[in-house]
Amino acid sequence: MASDYQQITSFQNSRVKQIKKLRDKRGRERESRFVIDDGRDLRRALACGYAVDYALYAPQLGDLPPEVPAHAVYAVTPDIMQKAAYRQNPSAIVAVMHSKPSRQPDDGRVPSDALVLVLVGLNKPGNVGALLRTADATGCTAVWLVDCALDRYNPNIIRASTGACFMDNIYELTADRALAHLHAHDYRITATLVDGDVSLFDADLSGRVALVMGTEEDGLSAEWALAAAQKLVIPMAGRMTDSLNVSVSGALCLYEALRQRRDKL
Predict the structure, then answer these.
(1) Which of 9, 88, 185, 220 is a plausible cystine mate for 224, CB 3.0–4.6 Å?
(2) What structural domains and CATH numbers belong to the chain?
């Protein structure tokens, strides 16, 4: 019942205002917090060790996930929830979560069959989220966000990843740091390029592999192309299309890698 929780009745409440500020990356970085406005995503964040700071709850819109501690809950009206939520059709809860510091890859022992998805300069949150989701589905060892202007707590990344963005195998680093780590640990750097010379169907994606993908607009820099031991191209049988959305290309490559490693299934 709403009466069991603290009440927020004003649009001018400081918590409602803070939630709106957390839609912006700078606000998230300044506050070390982010927002989840979906019960499934919230449960997955909690399962990955994230902690709730506080949550707004509109009982008229649905049930409160039982994992949310009652002392952190503020009951609100649907109108206030509509104001606070990022989605046009809000769920019953908007939770403010404590974020975790960005991490760097470990320089310790790297598995001989490690598969790392390296996303360079991606700038569309829907693509990043979809790739995080696919990377988890295909058992990627890690995902690296390299020189990425986005943070993984972007609301659209959270939504598109269906919670995969909360996994502890996601790292944020510069291109210099990424290349140094890949060379130091003898990864086979495999870049996806429109003018690649190895068909995806013929590529060797077994062993310790870094699958590197750039933006649809600019692709990968010459630095990454020179570093690549394999330059992949995805075969195209049509007459008009010469490339695919990066999230589709990534899914094809990751599932080909999984097929070649199918003893893991």
Answers:
(1) 220
(2) 6-98 (3.30.1330.30), 115-264 (3.40.1280.10)
